[in-house]
Amino acid sequence: MFSMLKEKFSKQPRTVAINGENHVVANPGETILQAGLRQNVRLPHNCRVGGCAECKCKLVSGKVKELTESAYVLSTEELDEGYILACQSVPKSNIEIQVDRLETNGPNHEVKTLRGEIVSHNRLTHDIVRIDIALPEPLAYASGQYAQLSLPGTIDQPRAYSFAAAESVAQESSSVSFFIREVPGGEMSTHMQNDSVIGSSVNVEGPHGDFWLREAEEPMLCVAGGSGLAPLKSLLEEAVANNTQRPVTFFFGARTQADLYCVADIEKLASAWPSDFHFIPVLSDEPRDSDWEGRRGFVTDAMEGNVSGNEKVYMCGPPPMIDATVTSLQALSINPTQIYFDKFLDQSHTPDAVA
C-alpha cells in the first residue's frame, strides 16, 4: 500500500515558486528549466545538459532529484549554499528557488522545427566550416541565440550551434548559417567538415539560448574564441544594422594566424560602426619567428589597459577561455552582473554532451 501511495504521489505535478513571485507547475519528470520555459518564464540557461552552470539557482525549500552530478560544474561554496542546476533538477515536492538573474523582458520567439537543406559549405580554417541551410520559411531568432541541428536518418541526436548571421539577414533570405568546428570524436562536427553534406536534409529546431544583446548605454566588451565568433558576429551585425551607438572593444583569441577567420567581416563591421570599434586579435601559439606583429598570449593578457570596468561583456568560446576571462575581468572591476556568456561545450566537457 505504501509503495502504491508513494508511486501515485511521485506522479503529481509540483509547484515551483521562483523568487517568491513567479509560480510555475512542473509536470511529473519535468525539470525546473523545462517547466519554466514551457510557461514563458525566462530562466537563464544555455547548454541545457548540465555543463555550463548558466541555469544555477538556489534551492530555498523542498526537494529535487538531480539527473546528473552538479559538483561537476558548481563550486564547493555553491553546493554548500544549496545551489542546483535547473536543467538537471526534477522537483520531488513543491519547491522554492532563488534565481539571481531572472529577466522579464527580451526576445520571446516561437520555437519551431523546420526541415531545411544544406545549400553551401565553405571552409574557414583547417577545423571550422560554415554551412548555410535553406529553410521553407523564415525562422525568427535573436542574434546570439542557437538552434539544435539533426540530420534525419543519419545523425538523429540534435547538436547545438549558434546562428552565425544577423537575424535580419536570415529573415530576408529564409536561410540560416552556422560555424561548425571539428571536435575530435564528434560525430556531427566531423560529418559536417566534408562538402558532401551539400544537399542533405537537416532539421533546425530553435531558437534557444539566453545570449542576446541587452539594451544599455555602457561600452561593449566582446571576447570570442574558436567558433565562438558565430554568435558575436551575428549579434554585432544586428547591432550595427540598428545603429547602435555604443563603443566596442573586441578581442578574438586564436592559436595562430591560420586560425583567424572572418577578419574582413569584422573589419567591415568596424568601419560601419557609428562609434569607436577596436578589434584586437590575440594569438597564443604563433611561431616566434613569424611576421605577426599583433598581440601574443591569451586574451586575458591583453585586457589590462583596454578595460575600464564599466563595460557590458559578451563572451563566446570554450569553457577554459570563458572561466579564465571571467576571473580576469573581476580583477579589473567588472561585476559578474555585467557579464553575459555562451560556453561552447562538447562531449569532453560533460558526460551527456555531444558534438
Could you explain how this protein is built, in words?
The chain has 355 residues and is of the alpha/beta class. The protein folds into 3 domains: 2-98, Beta-grasp domain (Ubiquitin-like (UB roll)); 112-208, Translation factors (Elongation Factor Tu (Ef-tu), domain 3), CATH 2.40.30.10; 220-343, 3-Layer(aba) Sandwich (Rossmann fold), CATH 3.40.50.80. 19% of the residues lie in helices and 31% in strands. The chain has helices at 2-10, 32-38, 76-80, 167-173, 187-191, 229-241, 263-272, 319-331, and strands at residues 14-18, 22-26, 56-61, 64-66, 83-85, 89-91, 95-98, 112-123, 128-134, 146-151, 155-162, 175-181, 201-208, 220-225, 248-254, 277-283, 295-296, 312-317, 339-343. It has a 6-stranded antiparallel sheet with strand order 11-10-13-8-9-12. Strands 17-16-15-14-18-19 form a 6-stranded parallel sheet, with helices on both faces. A 5-stranded mixed sheet has the order 2-1-7-3-5. α6 (229-241) runs parallel beside α7 (263-272). It is globular. The protein starts with a helix and ends in a 12-residue tail after the last strand. The model is unreliable at 1-9 and 348-355 (pLDDT under 50).
What is the H/E string? HEEHEEHEEEEEEEHEHEEHEHEEEHE
- Structural category is alpha/beta
Q: What gap, in angstroms, lies between the N and C termini?
A: 46 Å
Number of strands: 19
CATH level-two architecture of the largest domain: 3-Layer(aba) Sandwich
Helix content: 10-25%
Name the CATH superfamily classification of the largest domain. Nucleotide-binding domain of ferredoxin-NADP reductase (FNR) module
CATH fold descriptor of the largest domain:
Rossmann fold
Ranges where pLDDT stays below 50 over 5 or more residues in a row are 1-9, 348-355
The averaged pLDDT comes out at: 90
What is the count of helical runs?
Answer: 8
The percentage of residues in β strands lies in: 25-35%
Text of the CATH class of the largest domain: Alpha Beta
How do the strands line up in the largest sheet? 11-10-13-8-9-12
* Rg on CA atoms, Å: 21 Å
| Overall tally of domains | 3
How would a textbook summarize the main sheet? 6 strands, antiparallel
